Amino acid sequence: MTDIGTAAWVMARCADLTRHSSRPDALERVYLSPEHSAANTAVRAWMLDAGLDTETDAAGNIWGRRSADGAPQRPATPGEPTLVLGSHLDTVPDAGRYDGMLGVVLAIAVAHRLREVALPFALEVVGFSDEEGTRFGKALLGSCAASGQWDPAWWDQADADGVTLREAFARFGLAPDRVGDAARDPADLVGYLEAHIEQGPVLEARNLPLGYVTTIAGARRFVLTVTGEARHAGGTPFARRRDALVAASHLVTRIEELAIAADCLATVGDIHVQPGAVNVIPGRAELTLDLRGRTDAGRDALWEQIAAAGRGIAAERGVAFEFAETHRAPSTACADRLKAAVADGIGEATGAAPGDVLGLWSPAGHDGMAMDAVTDVGMLFVRCRDGISHHPDEHVEPEDVGVALDAFTAAVLALAREHRPAGPAEPSALVEPAAPVEPVETLGEVR
Amino acid sequence: MTDIGTAAWVMARCADLTRHSSRPDALERVYLSPEHSAANTAVRAWMLDAGLDTETDAAGNIWGRRSADGAPQRPATPGEPTLVLGSHLDTVPDAGRYDGMLGVVLAIAVAHRLREVALPFALEVVGFSDEEGTRFGKALLGSCAASGQWDPAWWDQADADGVTLREAFARFGLAPDRVGDAARDPADLVGYLEAHIEQGPVLEARNLPLGYVTTIAGARRFVLTVTGEARHAGGTPFARRRDALVAASHLVTRIEELAIAADCLATVGDIHVQPGAVNVIPGRAELTLDLRGRTDAGRDALWEQIAAAGRGIAAERGVAFEFAETHRAPSTACADRLKAAVADGIGEATGAAPGDVLGLWSPAGHDGMAMDAVTDVGMLFVRCRDGISHHPDEHVEPEDVGVALDAFTAAVLALAREHRPAGPAEPSALVEPAAPVEPVETLGEVR
Q1: How far apart are CA B244 and CA B343, in angstroms?
Q2: Is A292 on the interface with B (CB under 8 A)?
Q3: Does the structure show a pLDDT above 60 at B76?
Q4: Would you state the pLDDT for residue A40?
Q5: Chain B residues with CB inside 8 Å of A277's CB?
Q6: How far apart are CA A120 and CA A100, in angstroms?
Q7: What Cα–Cα distance (Å) separates residue B72 from each residue in B80, B122, B144, B294?
Q8: Is residue B228 over pLDDT 70?
Q9: Rounded Cα gap, residues B288 and B324, in angstroms
Q10: What top-level class would CATH report for the domain B219-327?
């Protein structure tokens, strides 16, 4: 048995959690499943070992807490400032073992390391119950509940088996009408800090184990529809064709060109054509589009270019171009004081000079996007092999986990040093931004 | 009641046949269905009215026959030369009412017009039972049986409900082990003549009601597979992507360019990507490709260009390109003497000078492709509105059907004039090509 508070312990616990899967051959653990319950049970035990008292909230999130002086503590004392560390415990289908789980287990190890240390705030660790949205299509359900943003419209969303979110709550032993109890009071919160694998290749390319996050990009998603005319593949010369797939293909290639030029990300992840027969010209093509950018303005400008390209191709080829926006999230800026604390922690753990600590934007979404509604957010990114995520090949090096553990611990201590007793005012207003943050971002930020 | 042998009668019978459908709201009549049986029964009555004796053969094709001297006649006298007129009675899903049926009903009307006329050959009309291949995926089953090309491998092909061709034979009252009885003896056949809607816009564009067919193009069909890497849409910069759909889209646009330059037809009718999620870069794309050309050599040269383009795009974008050929049919050249007879018939019916009669190649497949194995083939194309086929909007003008009836009758009489009593030698060797055919093709041929 490895010691709690070490990288080896963290790696072993991430491995342990793979047992709680709905599939024998792969990792899949969705919201409100028996596996979710089993993972919460395992995490609860580790939290207790780390000196935290535990509670499953009204939305299935698992929480552990210690008071400022280090004692396990449930429930929270209202008005006591609290720093939350954590990530999520649910997965995509056929997932890797680090996306989400690494951040929860690292946070427990940090709490264990600090169990004898008095802090100017209570410390909590959370394992969010749903970030991926695999089961009900809506992402961030766990952190939306914790940040008081639960939308009653979600209750009737059903999973692939027709089970509604409301029914799943009941089966899990949760009371739907109590979900509001999971909401945290912003006045109690000092901030939310999350460690997560990068899910991209930037740190690896820079030969860096860690980076801090500047912004979590919000995606916009669209369904694009091209309507032409289904006709006999034999009988219709090109001059008479209004082929929806050829038009859509021109658009797909143009989307890539425009996104590269705009330094944003654009992905057509799915396409369907109708009627979809070998000898019939496609009359209709439906495509999904996912857009992300370092800034919302850049992302939105790209969308305007793509829409213009769609209209231009449609006019040229005699087809119709329509779109529907299915998702739109604003980007979430990490708070200056939390970026500074994480950057300080990375500097302490790696020996890097402040100007050499890398700030990255996150094209992927995270629980911080929801938690931003109730408190400041900061994130630590950990290098992952080849940038692979959402795949069983997801991999982090134990050495990087060790450095991450040191950096995450140091970040909490950096925050503690800067923390002054807070009233109900906005916590971010209480602390000046740390001096090195701006130059660091300017120097090091990449996407 | 309109008179048999008139355009109005032909139009009314095509309308009658729409009653024999598996769907109340649309026309769908597939091989060996109850509707197939009902359509055969209706057609049998019309054949009897036209002075033909009838028989359903061992593959469900319905035949009518009169002897050279005009008497209804079953069975055929072995060794008696026979001219076959016809088309097919089955349909695609949600079909129009003319594709196939018009040719059968026109042939019956021609037989009625000639019922008092002695001919130098027996005259038969056939309604083929399966040309479209809708039910079992394999096209031309009816004419393959009649031309002795039945492949026992087809018996185990199943329809969408899992019913095999063998079981469907038995349910229809046919004996699978007797299917060979449907094969016609080449020595008895003078030729096969078919009237069919054009299924394309050429005649309409030229303001012509009719044209004769020079060649029935054989399609080649492929499944193309592009394999890249499925990765997180957020975490993967463009430089690291191997997006199977973007590569496939480049190929789709290139296929159109190459086909236009080669004066062939190429259609990507269907596409599927995996995993097919809004936030995952497609790791695999599978496309169908249908290729047709006026000549097999032109079509095959185009395929080589497309395959080279696929390999080039794959190399450029770091993906793999593979293909599998799923279908390959050679083109079928219509016989000179049958082209000449149909061209003569069109000239007589329309008053067009020989040089103004249009020869077209048929990008769509027809029963003549199978019948070519046992006898010479000729085809008459009838203008259809906007080139639409395989669709409920399929439409022909009654005036064009009237001219087609005159032309098809005249074509039979033209053949009769040229026919000399034949021994078992190849019929096409007995007749010199008619003089005007070559210039007509050279002048008028288009695609």
Answers
A1: 50
A2: yes
A3: yes
A4: 98
A5: 269-270
A6: 27
A7: 14, 10, 26, 40
A8: yes
A9: 10
A10: alpha beta
Residue B439: the pLDDT is 30
Exposure pattern of B130-162 as b/e (b: 16+ CB <10 Å)? bbbbbbbebbbbbbbbbbbebeeebbebebeee
Within 10 angstroms of residue B206's Cβ, the number of other Cβ atoms is 15
- pLDDT for res A421: 55
Identify the pLDDT of residue B83.
Answer: 98
Residues of chain B with Cβ-Cβ distance to A260 below 8 Å are 238
Cross-chain Cβ contact B279/A269 below 8 Å: yes
Parallel, antiparallel or unpaired: strands A359-362 and A210-216? parallel
Q: Is the distance from CB of A279 to CB of B290 less than 8 angstroms? A: yes
Residues contacting A173, CB < 8 A, separation 6+: none
The partner residue sitting opposite B199, judged by closest CB among A234, A281, A362, is: A234
Contact A357, A364 (CB under 8 A): no
Q: Hey, where are the domains in chain B? A: 7-217+331-430, 219-327
Residues of A in contact with B256 (CB under 8 A): 238, 243, 246
**Looking at chain B, which residue has its C-alpha nearest residue A261?**
B238
> How far is residue A325 from each of residues A44, A212, A224, A225, A289, measured CA to CA in Å?
40, 31, 9, 12, 9
Give the span between the Cα atoms of B124 and B115, in whole angstroms: 12
**Which residue among A235, A278, A390 places its CB closest to the CB of B200?**
A235
Q: Which chain B residue shows the shortest CA-CA distance from A366?
A: B234
* Residue B234 near chain A (CB below 8 Å): yes
CATH of A7-217+331-430, one of 3.40.630.10, 3.40.50.80, 3.40.50.170, 3.40.1180.10: 3.40.630.10
Quote the ipTM score.
0.78
Tell me which chain A residues have a C-beta less than 8 angstroms from the C-beta of B134: none
Whether residue A440 is predicted with pLDDT greater than 90 in this model: the reply is no
Does B219-327 match B7-217+331-430 at the fold level? no
> Minimal Cα–Cα distance from B35 to chain A, Å?
24
pLDDT at position A426: 43
Is the pLDDT assigned to residue B51 strictly greater than 50?
yes
Using an 8 Å CB-CB cutoff, list chain B residues near A256.
238, 243, 246
How do beta strands B189-197 and B377-382 pair? parallel
Quick one: CA dihedral B355, B356, B361, B365, positive or negative?
negative
User: Is the bond preceding B398 in cis, omega lying within 30 degrees of 0?
Assistant: no
Q: Which of A328, A254, A315, A242 is nearest to A281 (CA)?
A: A242
pLDDT tens sequence across A116-129:
999 999 999 999 99
Task: Give burial (CB, 10 Å; 0-12/13-18/19+) of B341.
Answer: buried
A45 burial via Cβ count (<10 Å: 0-12, 13-18, 19+): exposed
Per-residue pLDDT tens for A318-377? 999 999 998 898 999 999 999 999 999 999 999 999 889 999 999 999 999 999 999 999
Contact B282 A270 (CB under 8 A): yes
DSSP class of residue B207 equals T
- Cβ neighbors of A368 (< 8 A, separation 6 or more) are A143, A192, A194, A216, A332, A334, A377, A378, A379
Give yes or no for a contact between A254 and A314, defined as CB atoms under 8 angstroms apart: no
Q: How does pLDDT run across A43-56, given as a tens digit for each residue? A: 999 999 999 999 99
Contact A374, A338 (CB under 8 A): no
- Decide if A217 contacts A293 (C-beta within 8 A): yes
Cβ contact B200–A237 (<8 Å): yes
Determine contact, residues B127/B87, Cβ cutoff 8 Å. Answer: yes
Name the band, by pLDDT with cuts 50, 70 and 90, for residue B445: very low
SS3 B183: coil
